[in-house]
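cache lookup: miss for this entity combination. No prior model stored, computing from scratch. Input as submitted by user K.M.:
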Amino acid sequence: MREVQAAELTKVDLAKYPFLKAASAYVANLGFSLRDLGAPGLSDVLKRAVERVAEAIRSGRVRAEIRDEDVDILSFPVALALVVAVGNEYLRKRYALAEAKRAEELLLLEPPEKILAVARDLGWEIRPVEILGNGVLYEFSLSVRDYLRTASGMKDKKWKLVNRLVRSGEVLITRVEAARLLSEDIQRRIEGFLDRRLKEVPPVLSDAVERIKGLLAELKLGERPSLELGEVNFEAFPPCMKALYTALSEKRHVPHAGRFAFTAFLLHVGMSVDEIVDLFKQVADFSERITRYQVEHIAGERGGKTRYSPPSCDTMRSYGLCVGTDDLCSRVRHPLTYYARKLRRLRKSKRGGGEGGGENG
Amino acid sequence: MEERTARFLKNLFSCYYREKRPVFPLDLPHREFAFMLFGQKAVIRHRGFSSHEELWSFMAELGPSDAFYSSAHFERPDAPDMKSKGWLGADLIFDIDADHLPTSCKEEHDLWACPACGREGRGEAPDKCPGCGSKGLVEVKWICDKCISAAKDEVIKLAEVLEAELGIQASDMVISFSGHRGFHLQVISEDLLPLGQDERREIVDYLLGLGLEPELLGVKAGARLSINDVGWRGRIARGLYRLLLRAREEDLRALGLRSKAARALLSSRDVILNCLEQGKPLYLPKGLGRAQLRKLVAACVEDSSVKVDPVVTGDTHRLVRMSGTLHGKTGLLKVDIPLLEVEDFDPFGEAIAFRKGKAKVKVKEEIPQVPPLRLWDQEFGPFEAGQLLELPLQVAVFLMCKKVAELA
């Protein structure tokens, strides 16, 4: 069998993957600092940095083609400084994602040796394998810890640990999956780089910062409408919340996690603490004092002042509170999203004179 | 609990801690501690201690009914709310509670009674009295060798899966009897401290087999599925093998299979068993479609999943009972047990704190009956309502902690 070993990272690799530790070391070694940007030989660097951010804003993807290695390597930290200077939360996310997509595109073209080198630079515990299983060629074995760190946020069921081949603390992944997981990790790493504030914008960057702000305003990005839920509509409740409501009204035992989820859900769809306490009074003989205390706690009016969100679908499933799904459930990850969408559907069907509430809760 | 019973137990527990030290958690200065007291509902929380001695003398003075520490490590464990504590990471913990396992003995030893109309029953208490509709039912939940044995099987299975599949070394696991109805397994590993809630929940789903898609694991006709496979594939293969080996048509029907599918499956039983033994491409008969196969696999998953409490493991801010401390609902000790000794562990012989002395107690009038209790080789009870008893101290403490008797 061919022995796969991590390859050396060359200068081209650093240009492809400028977020690597090896790339920062290279930049530090050159003695480069933002103040040098005014120098005549470095105008290309600032230009490319602005392009990187502009490409992210316009198309959501930074160009993968490399024209000058040094320019590509140096323009990355400059682009980071620009995004931080603009100080727009939406841009931070969009830029990190655009760079991560660029990296994924490049990684998909790499041989396993390079993927290994990039993964190890990012601190992954990963080794090459060659295992054919399920008719799929697995080329890497990744530690469960690193796998979970990146894959636990992914929605598709194929990423769930329970659906993976797992042994001795390692998860088998294909080359394409490795590129996808690396991209996820890279995105977070770049978001981490961007999670800081500048005391003042270095004068040499100020023109560039203004241009990016202009671009953002032009495209009206970074302003998202807030979710309007309006009045509470029981018909639009997801099956899990309807089930909790039914259980409570039939005075059946509802575990703590269930009562918590239901209360947090009600608070988020716009019910007030008083309304919820009244509701609980009708459906179960709780002590009003204790109920009020708990509801206020969840609403963030007491204790740690955290306003709790209802659990996501994944959490509801883990807690055994998911009662099976209808067709809308399969398209959402959160009971609140279900509610908002169902509400919209109900309104639409009402306006259209339809029957409304066709789906079974 | 009557005031004098509470005072008696508090003094007794206090005395115990004056002589015996608890097992101190690792990284003590970064843990939050919490305590409960007999006869009081409030919990003492957000306590931090800088040394073993300080914590130990605090407990000896307080005589708490229960003592806990945070699974989380904090920068400032004594800060009054979670936000300002500064979370540094949390131990990975698992809880297996016999109360959540389907054991037949609950029908034998769990009792309830309605003080309003006098009706009684066995097993889990209903939400309201079927006789008069009153909701103030008295419940007696007991533990016996059967419950403990079911929980033991589960914790051993847990340790096996953690080691063989998730790569957690046996030497990094601490297993303990909780002092009541279950077992805890705690993983001591710097590597796993930073795991967030999503990651912990993925581990829970893995153990419980939640969200498992047979096709994604390559469990389908023509797949090379073998009883020697590692991970869920192997567990499903072995489950299928065990099931087919002894299944009758009605067993398969009970799993929700159509009779046509059940018959087709049984008529090719030997071929399928052979495929699973040899890891040859799996033969499945025509009558067994995708939906039928899913039902079959679901039964295998239910059979070989590890029944951990999802809430405990998913929570990165959990309070854990300290080892070497007394459990306020039983007066038994939480004790650490080496993995190899779990099988033979006898809580009613080894989790004993009070070996000498006697005490007089009176069974409460509203209790229908106190189920029997074994301690070492001796059986005590059953006892009737109102009975006045002189019992070995540990047994008397057990009855008072279980709130079925008061100090006489």
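stored under new cache key. The longest strand of chain A covers residues 126-133.
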